[in-house]
Amino acid sequence: MNDVPAIDRNSRIIKKAHGGKRPGAGRPKGSTSKNAIEIKNAILEAFDSVGGAAYLKGVAKDDPRVFCALLGRVLPIQHEGNPDNPLVVQNVPAVDRPPKETREEWEARRNREVMNGHVGAPARTTN
Fold first, then answer.
1. Closest-CA residue to 59 (of 72, 32, 87, 68)
2. How far apart (Å, rounded) are the C-alpha atoms in residues 63 and 70?
3. Tens digit of each residue's pLDDT (9 = 90 or more) over 84-99
4. pLDDT tens-digit profile of 59-76?
5. DSSP 57-100
6. 3-state SS assignment for residue 6
7. Residue 56 neighbours by CB distance under 10 Å
8. Are 27 and 38 in contact, with CB atoms under 8 Å apart?
9. Percent helix / strand / coil, the chain, rounded to 5
């Protein structure tokens, strides 16, 4: 290889491109970094030093919210259902909607409510 740097016409050194996407470069996808492994080992060591499973039983009794949050992070997520007992997806509206009514029915109901003093008058817009 030529280790002599290239120089442009204004006597500036032209930098060669480094890095970029190369096959096999970097850590393989899905592998754990060294820092993450060290942190996990430190957490497990601290867990063992405070009593392990006995400590978790105490947390479950003393602070069930924290214990349940931990369970939610640790338990695996089930991606497939049981073929003998399939999951049933129901479309449940998130908002409690009023009954269907025509514009005329709504206006009549609204006018009755305003006349009886049950609600404030509708907002008026000016153009």
1. 68
2. 11
3. 887 777 777 677 777 7
4. 889 988 988 888 888 877
5. HHHHHH-HHHHHHHHHHHSPPP-S-BTTB--------SS-PPPP
6. strand
7. 15
8. no
9. 40, 5, 55
